[in-house]
Amino acid sequence: MADLTLDPALTNRSDGPVIIVAAGSQETVRSSGAHSHCRGQLFGSTRGLITIGVDEGVWVVPTTHAIWVPPHRVHWARSHGPFQGFAVYVAEPDCAVLPAAPCSIRMSGLLREAMLRAARWPAGPLDARGERLAGVILDEIATSPVDALGLPLPRDARLLRIARALADDPADDRTLEDWARWAAIGARSLSRHFVAETGFTFTAWRQRARLLRALEMLADDVPVTRIALDLGYSTPSTFIDLFRRTFGATPAAYRQRFVAA
């Protein structure tokens, strides 16, 4: 298919092809509000960067990964800068063997090439060759490694209020004690429950939120120095060192992945 726009009637019915694949590009920001459909969906980019959210968390997704969302799960998405991407819609009965919860999977070359080939199919029933390729795509989704690439959100309403405020403004440098007073929770309780509900200490979670926002800003072509200062780092070199330790490349080198992919 030439673009990512599909008739909602196709994604909200499980009869028809086992998979429906769309692929396309857009030079401006692409955004979809919170929605759900009865088909499961795998989506990601082959160029550029997207942010995808569900109730449990938010992912900033580079071209090396894709996000799987099971049927009927509410989700939203937004691209950053020029974007080229794909979406695979899987009939609900065939999702039984796929991950039961939203997750980030590492893309294999086989999955990428199979999807891009399927995106060129005309709409309608699959022939025998199409059914075989659809089977390969489902096998790859089912067996691809799951990576903890996202930003998990806590369930407690007080902690969730803090997390959403920090996700909106990762540069906010209030201390844990300040946030505890703001959300009317004890500082020790905040610290303990944050680890229990997200798997991260409060400090590590906030650092992760800043780094994921940095990826978005890199994709939007924001200068590295401005990113560092806007996100509250004391110096650009502090930001660059932390980014390199986390992602294995400097911010400038990582930015090239969005362009070259």
From TrEMBL:
It comes from the Bacteria. Residues 160-257 form the HTH araC/xylS-type domain. It comes from Telluria mixta. Gene3D superfamilies: Homeodomain-like. This is Helix-turn-helix transcriptional regulator. Keywords: DNA-binding, Transcription, Transcription regulation. It holds the Pfam family HTH_18.
